[in-house]
Design brief:
Elements lengths: L4 E3 L10 E6 L5 E6 L5 E6 L3 E6 L5 E6 L5 E6 L5 E6 L3 E6 L5 E6 L5 E6 L5 E6 L3 E6 L5 E6 L5 E6 L5 E6 L3 E6 L5 E6 L5 E6 L5 E6 L3 E6 L5 E6 L5 E6 L5 E6 L3 E6 L5 E6 L5 E6 L5 E6 L3 E6 L16 E6 L5 E6 L3 E6 L5 E6 L5 E6 L5 E6 L3 E6 L5 E6 L7 E3 L5 E4 L2 E4 L18 E4 L2 E4 L2 E5 L8 E5 L2 E5 L5 E6 L1
Antiparallel strand pairs: 1-46, 2-29, 3-4, 4-5, 5-6, 7-8, 8-9, 9-10, 11-12, 12-13, 13-14, 15-16, 16-17, 17-18, 19-20, 20-21, 21-22, 23-24, 24-25, 25-26, 27-28, 28-29, 30-31, 31-32, 32-33, 34-35, 35-36, 36-37, 38-39, 39-40, 41-42, 42-43, 44-45, 45-46
């Protein structure tokens, strides 16, 4: 252990698989896709929007709005400049990635559009619909080139072969069909699944097709002969999404069992089991370098996973939403955190254990402060109240209604008043004698994301999930509040 450490931060021995949790959608996430350079993630949601995210930082870059109903499918063009989306509004739309503006609106389907994809040369878009058809569109003219008919139920998924000469489609009729893109004729009909085929994908060399089904299996097929090669079993519910890694060696599958699984494409054996989502997984995608898998879920999040580590991460958790503010007691023994989950939580600074959960606010908490003796905590919220709490019992002592939201609150030195950006509040309590024995040591720890700096030098690099939205330092202790609701403690000497 480095001599500067007094106590190691409460984090796992090995960083887990999840790299990012992308939050912003107001409805279930139905589709995700990586840009060809791996720098951007697109997601489509029941909130009728397509969102573009920075794959490194997790920040939202663009919010694409125009669809009038759920967005069920998204895909990037080969040059990464355009995103295509399919929606329950029966349209296919093309968007400019740089500006977020809609470029084209392709109309023709009679029912919901459930799947979209670009051809490898970027000149054609293919779409699959609940009207049981697959349609090919000319990107330059927006005109329909082919209407492929043959399925006896909804078309739920489509994929282009790497050479662009074949389209695979999966359907509620339990089959996968391979189509000639030049003639529109059906080449092969792949049968074997016992229930609806939800997703299909070609291997990078075009020799295999993977499919995920309501029968809880992933199946691998020979694209030339149409014969089944492998049957991958392990999921406990519908397999809604499948994807090949760029080198073709791995297959990712996402299921309603809330798990992403990684499989060996050659042997069919399960390699990794990625857990973390709180609801059904609807979509999966590999980054271009194959080191990351993105998954979208009905829990309204997009998560990025490390394909090498593949282990569940442990977190210090308690809040149910973003941590907006943190503060130390004067003696440094306690930490208060305020959250969008409308609560204030008090934590033991030494152990990281939650001491109290202070409930009463009706909106997110955005300001917290300790009294000089540490026996009282004050909090400010978007509900336009300032509340005063007993730190030992967690009981609410006072409630002050303000004309504006109090973003900042500070106790006076004698503890009788609260200084806020909405005015001075008289707490009506006897003077508190400041504890003269407590002397604040100069703070030598700083957080300049992604680094914790110790005595001015980069000291500890933080993974994305530990980079907080708020932090506070006291002497040798640093506390970070994360958007996930977690609070992390780092102690140095």
């Amino acid at each position: 252990m480095h001599k500067y450490f007094e106590a190691m931060p409460q984090v796992p021995d090995r960083w887990g698989a999840e790299r990012q949790k992308l939050e912003g959608h107001d409805g279930e996430v139905n589709a995700v896709a990586f840009s060809p350079d791996g720098k951007t993630v697109a997601s489509g949601s029941w909130d009728k929007t397509v969102r573009l995210w920075d794959a490194v930082t997790g920040e939202e870059r663009q919010k694409l709005e125009a669809h009038d109903d759920y967005v069920r499918a998204v895909a990037f063009s080969p040059d990464g400049k355009t995103v295509v989306s399919g929606s329950d509004d029966k349209t296919v739309r093309l968007w400019d990635v740089a500006t977020g503006k809609e470029r084209q609106k392709l109309e023709g389907h009679d029912r919901y559009v459930r799947a979209v994809a670009f051809s490898p040369d970027g000149k054609t878009v293919v779409s699959g619909s609940e009207d049981r058809t697959v349609r090919l569109w000319d990107v330059a003219t927006s005109k329909e080139r082919q209407k492929l008919e043959g399925h006896n139920d909804w078309v739920s998924s489509i994929a282009f072969s790497p050479d662009g000469m074949t389209v695979a489609s999966g359907s509620g009729d339990k089959t996968i069909r391979l189509w000639d893109t030049a003639t529109g004729k059906e080449r092969k009909k792949l049968e074997g699944h016992d229930k609806w085929v939800f997703d299909v994908a070609f291997s990078p060399d075009g020799k295999m097709v993977a499919s995920g089904s309501g029968d809880k299996t992933v199946r691998l097929w020979d694209a030339a002969t149409g014969k089944e090669r492998q049957k991958l079993e392990g999921h406990d519910d519908y397999v809604r999404a499948v994807a090949f890694s760029p080198d073709g060696k791995l297959i990712a599958s996402g299921s309603w069992d809330k798990i992403v699984r990684l499989w060996d494409a050659a042997t069919g054996k399960e390699r990794k089991k990625l857990e973390g989502h709180d609801n059904y997984i609807r979509t999966v995608a590999f980054s271009p370098d194959g080191k990351t898998v993105a998954s979208g879920s009905w829990d309204k999040t997009v998560r990025l996973w490390d394909t090498v580590i593949g282990e569940k991460r442990q977190k210090l958790e308690g809040h149910d939403n973003s941590v907006n503010v943190v503060a130390f007691s004067l003696d440094g023994k306690m930490v208060a955190s305020g959250s969008s989950d409308k609560t204030v939580r008090l934590w033991d600074a030494a152990t990281g254990k939650e001491r109290q959960k202070l409930e009463g606010h009706e909106d997110p908490v955005i300001a917290v402060a300790f009294s000089p003796d540490g026996k009282t905590v004050a909090s400010g919220s978007w509900d336009k109240t300032v509340r005063v709490w007993d730190a030992a019992t967690g009981e609410e002592r006072q409630k002050h209604e303000t004309s504006m939201v109090a973003h900042r609150i500070v106790f006076s030195n004698d503890g009788r008043y609260l200084e806020t950006d909405t005015g001075l509040l008289d707490l009506g309590i006897s003077s508190i004698t400041p504890r003269a024995s407590i002397t604040e040591s100069p703070t030598t720890i700083l957080l300049e994301s992604p680094w914790i700096k110790y005595r001015g030098a980069d000291f500890l690099w933080l993974p994305h999930e530990f980079r907080g939205v708020r932090h506070v330092a006291s002497g040798s202790l640093l506390v970070i509040g994360q958007a996930s609701g977690a609070v992390s403690f780092f102690s140095f000497r």
